[in-house]
Amino acid sequence: MQQEIQALERNGTWSLVPLPPGKVPIGCKWVYKLKYKADDTLERYKARLVVNGFTQQVGIDYEETFSPVVKIVTVRLVLAIASMKNWPLYHMDVDNAFLQGDL
Known about the structure:
Number of strands: 2
Order of helices and strands: HEEH
Number of domains: 1
Low-confidence stretches: none
Helix content: 10-25%
Largest sheet: 2 strands, antiparallel
Strand order of the largest sheet: 1-2
Number of helices: 2
């Protein structure tokens, strides 16, 4: 949890501000997950702070949404092309990947 908070602070993705009068804060919770290596041994513990977005209201709490999620069809297409062209494939895990660049 501490690493997640430090990453959020380091990337400047949030700041603590006073709540406007008459507004109710949107709740959040910690989600925990275990990451395993290929041989099923424990690699690390992961913690993520997520907002209870189901309480948000359009036009009040947000104007638009965007979630950079790739479709499985796209992944399969890229893998197929890489296979046909004999391109090398690499895998990496990036902490807070969505914070690392402009979309």
